[in-house]
Specification:
The complex is a heterotrimer of chains A (219), B (281) and C (292).
Chain A: H1 7-12, H2 14-46, H3 51-65, H4 69-79, H5 89-116, H6 119-127, H7 132-162, H8 174-184, H9 188-217
Helix pairs in contact in A: 2-3, 2-5, 2-8, 3-5, 4-5, 5-7, 6-7, 7-9, 8-9
Chain B: H1 30-38, H2 56-88, H3 94-108, H4 112-126, H5 129-138, H6 142-168, H7 172-180, H8 185-200, H9 202-215, H10 227-238, H11 241-270
Helix pairs in contact in B: 2-6, 2-9, 2-10, 3-6, 4-5, 4-6, 6-8, 6-9, 7-8, 9-11, 10-11
Chain C: H1 2-17, H2 27-35, E1 37-42, E2 45-46, E3 50-52, E4 58-59, H3 61-76, E5 83-88, H4 94-99, E6 105-107, E7 120-129, E8 131-136, E9 150-155, H5 159-171, E10 175-180, H6 183-191, E11 197-201, H7 202-211, E12 218-221, E13 228-235, H8 239-255, H9 257-266, H10 279-288
Parallel strand pairs in C: 1-5, 1-6, 9-10, 9-11
Antiparallel strand pairs in C: 2-3, 3-4, 7-13, 8-11, 8-12
Classes of the chains: A mainly alpha (219), B mainly alpha (281), C alpha/beta (292).
Chain lengths: 219, 281, 292
């Protein structure tokens, strides 16, 4: 089958594939930023003294972490528009689904990061007269994020790969675009192989970079 | 604009389908088929309350069974292959280490969904014609076997990393002590390193299993009718989307809870006295 | 008496004085008016009803009809700048997405049946077909009875899936099912010998053959295994939208323009499908050409 490997079909469809890659980048970017912001809020809730907050955040994380991402995508794509989420459209629903899903994973990473900062520093902050939020903002979170940058980035690589699951609702990300061309032109081997090479190069290069960061950031 | 939505939890319990008026299947033209298709029991369509058109309960049970079968079978591959690769990454022979590293990097850096497609659509085409034909035609339930192999090999790359981390967490002195006592490298692994490291890595191995369990849903893209696929199918048949997705989500959560509880118990049982177990993931 | 007459005259005048567009909008039309957008769901590989054309945009017989409906919406709602949002759908997503409001109209190759009408609604019948099998030439398969012990591809969520499974059960034919997402995947399964037959509506099979690289390899075989009249889908309990759509279709059928659109796509059509209109469909056009 490789004997008649047709490179031309890939070149002919670079435009479609690139449009797909933009969707993949958009999904990754929004879910990464949104997930980290919401994940930080969840992590602070989990570590809060108020039982209600920590309980709510804990159950949220449990629920999302024990549900398959595909089912979460289905929830937001098919079920949520019924209760009035339709104005945001298909892409919007999926962006929300990814953000909320990733937040549960980032919450746990960030929580571990915060807990890695010694308790003495909170006391030191309080001794200096800082409020809870000032202590978090100026003392704890900067150190915590420094500790967890490599882990956050590793999770981002996982997220980048997971965005391909929008295939199940037909949103045209990179893999879905490749699949569209593959079945349309009956060039399955070429397109899937090309997609695999692209994903591998991007993810492998990123993970090498993360490994280097990990060494630099090690305190 | 909120839509009108008819709540109906009872569809979850549908066991036997109501007899649908069936279209004639005898050879014929369109027209006779047409009359018999709409003839039959036209009256029942006005009864919107009765929605048990299919045995939805049985579909859910079948979906849960397939999810569990696929996940457990894949885990067997993951655990055995992951152990071999993980150990291979720690041995002294550079060639073995390189092969194992290549495996981990390859399977870790390509999305699972694409790996599913590669196994299902590309691999049979690359095999010799007879073998490819066997995979596609003679093998019963090809999509299920493909899903099991694909999930197993994908997660093996992750489990391998846990095994490696477990082995590397053991102080080098223990290996040296073993070798000094005259044990072979094999014996050091068998009697010193592995018994300790497997006990240390129970929590991450548990979360690996949960990963397989959840990721089995990706197999729906190649036609495996597991829990998520069945729930979407029921949603499409009944439009009782909230009810069926709620049930599916609860099933995933309950299974997760059971597995995590059981593994906590196992972990406590085999914990090495004097060590702090790694926190559950 | 004169009082009654006066009252009636006033009522008639009042009714005439209120232009149609000022009537209270509701449902889909209100949503379109409020958002300035209509979301058109379309299939991507239902040749020649709705498929991705050379320009990357959906084209086809049903897509043309949908644009006629959209033109009428523009006119009736006085919205010349109405934006059309294109949303690709599959046989599995079309009904949930229409019912949950993600799309406002579905343009593809959807069978109008009573079970589905519990969830959504249809405009007039625009095509009539039924399930058949596509096989490779020389396979020896003529009818579904010849398929005993063989493998068949079916598209998830289609009436064809249900029809084939029902017949197989009734006749005790043992089939190996290969479930696919959409027509191209089913066709791929047939082309790569994963299955012996792909079952869907016969017109779609001809469409797939006309688009395939080697049309002479395949043949559509057997009798009709189901009756599948197609309709454009709209939301349920929305008479205003349905009336608007059916008015457009009745106008097209009455004026003979429907036949022209048919010929554009089928006779011989851009993919060379070459299907002159059947007498059944011609009669359907005539019956549904409702007067004012």
């Amino acid at each position: 089958m490789f004997a008649n490997f047709d490179y031309q079909v890939i070149l002919d469809n670079v435009g479609i594939l690139w449009d797909g890659m933009l969707i993949t980048f958009l999904l990754t970017g929004v879910a990464l930023v949104g997930g980290i912001i919401f994940g930080t809020v969840l992590a602070l809730m989990r570590l809060s003294r108020f039982k209600v907050l920590s309980f709510a955040a804990g159950r949220y994380v449990d629920a999302f972490r024990s549900t398959p991402l595909i089912l979460v995508i289905f929830w937001f794509y098919f079920a949520m528009p019924i209760i009035g989420l339709q104005a945001i459209g298909g892409l919007g629903s999926v962006l929300i689904a990814f953000t909320l899903f990733e937040a549960a994973y980032y919450c746990e990473i960030i929580r571990a990061g915060i807990q890695s900062v010694t308790r003495a520093q909170i006391h030191a902050g309080q001794a200096l007269g800082l409020t809870y939020f000032q202590t978090m903002q100026y003392v704890i979170l900067p150190q915590a994020f420094r500790n967890m940058v490599p882990v956050l980035l590793t999770q981002a690589i996982v997220l980048f790969q997971d965005t391909s699951l929008v295939y199940v609702v037909g949103l045209k990300d990179f893999l879905t675009a490749a699949d569209l061309v593959a079945v349309r032109d009956n060039r399955v081997v070429e397109l899937y192989a090309a997609a695999a090479v692209v994903y591998f190069v991007l993810c492998f290069a990123s993970s090498l970079w993360v490994r280097r960061l990990r060494r630099q950031y090690a305190i | 604009m909120a839509m009108k939505y008819n709540w109906d939890w009872s569809i979850i319990l549908c066991r036997s389908p109501e007899e649908e008026p069936t279209a004639a299947v005898e050879p014929g033209t369109l027209a006779p088929d047409a009359t018999s298709a709409v003839g039959g029991g036209a009256g029942q369509f006005f009864d919107t309350g009765a929605s048990c058109a299919q045995p939805y309960f049985d579909w859910i049970v079948s979906g849960v069974s397939w999810t569990i079968i696929v996940a457990c079978a894949a885990w067997v591959i993951t655990f055995s292959l992951g152990s071999i690769i993980g150990i291979a990454r720690t041995v002294d022979q550079p060639v073995v280490r390189a092969v194992a590293t290549a495996y981990v990097e390859f399977f870790r850096n390509i999305p699972l969904l694409l790996q599913m497609f590669l196994w299902f659509f590309v691999v049979p085409e690359l095999l010799p014609e007879d073998a490819g034909r066997w995979v596609k035609r003679e093998l019963p339930l090809p999509e299920y076997w493909t899903a099991i192999v694909c999930l197993g090999m994908y997660h093996a790359s992750r489990t391998a990393e846990q095994v490696r981390a477990g082995i590397e967490s053991i102080p080098r002195g223990q290996t040296q002590a073993g070798l000094a006592m005259g044990l072979t490298q094999f014996q050091v692994y068998r009697h010193v390193l592995l018994p300790v490291s497997y006990r240390i890595i129970i929590p991450p191995l548990t979360s690996d299993f949960m990963g397989i369990f959840k990721n089995s849903s990706v197999a729906l893209t190649i036609g495996v009718m597991e829990l998520t696929a069945q729930s979407r199918q029921i949603a499409e048949y009944t439009f009782n989307i909230f009810e069926i997705f709620t049930v599916a989500t609860l099933i995933y959560m309950v299974v997760t809870l059971i597995v995590v509880t059981v593994m906590r118990f196992v972990e406590a049982k085999v914990r090495i006295p004097g060590t702090i177990a790694m926190g559950a993931d | 008496m004169s009082k009654l007459k006066l009252l009636m005259a006033t009522l008639v005048l009042a009714a005439l004085a209120v232009p149609a567009s000022a009537a209270e909008l509701y449902g889909t039309l209100k949503k379109i008016k409020d958002s300035g957008t209509i979301a058109m769901g379309h299939r991507e590989a239902s040749v020649p009803f709705a498929y991705i054309g050379p320009e990357g945009k959906p084209i086809g017989y049903t897509v043309d009809l949908c644009y006629k409906v959209i033109d009428k919406i523009k006119k009736d709602l006085n919205m010349p700048d109405l934006k059309v949002k294109l949303v690709p759908v599959t046989s599995q997503t079309r009904i949930p997405l229409l019912a949950n409001g993600t799309i406002d109209i579905e343009c593809g190759s959807t069978t109008n049946n009573l079970t589905r009408s519990k969830q959504i609604d249809y405009l007039a019948v625009t095509f009539i077909t039924g399930t058949k099998l596509a096989v490779k030439k020389g396979s020896g398969i003529k009818e579904i009875e010849d398929m005993d012990g063989k493998a068949i591809a079916l598209s998830l969520g289609t009436t064809n899936e249900k029809a084939i499974k029902r017949i197989a059960k009734a006749k005790g034919i043992k089939l190996k099912y290969h479930m696919v997402k959409d027509h191209p995947q089913g066709w791929l399964a047939l082309d790569t010998d994963r299955v012996d037959a792909y079952a869907t509506d016969d017109v779609l099979l001809y469409g797939l053959i006309s688009k395939s690289k080697d049309a002479s390899k395949f043949v559509v075989t057997g009798r009709f295994l189901s009756y599948d009249p197609y309709g454009i889908m709209v939301r349920r309990d929305d008479s205003a939208m349905r009336l608007l759509g059916n008015t457009v279709l009745a106008d097209l059928m009455r004026s003979g323009e429907m036949q022209k659109i048919y010929d554009k796509w089928f006779n011989p059509g851009p993919t060379g499908i070459n299907m002159p209109i059947s007498s059944t469909l011609k009669t359907a056009y005539e019956i549904q050409a409702l007067p004012y």
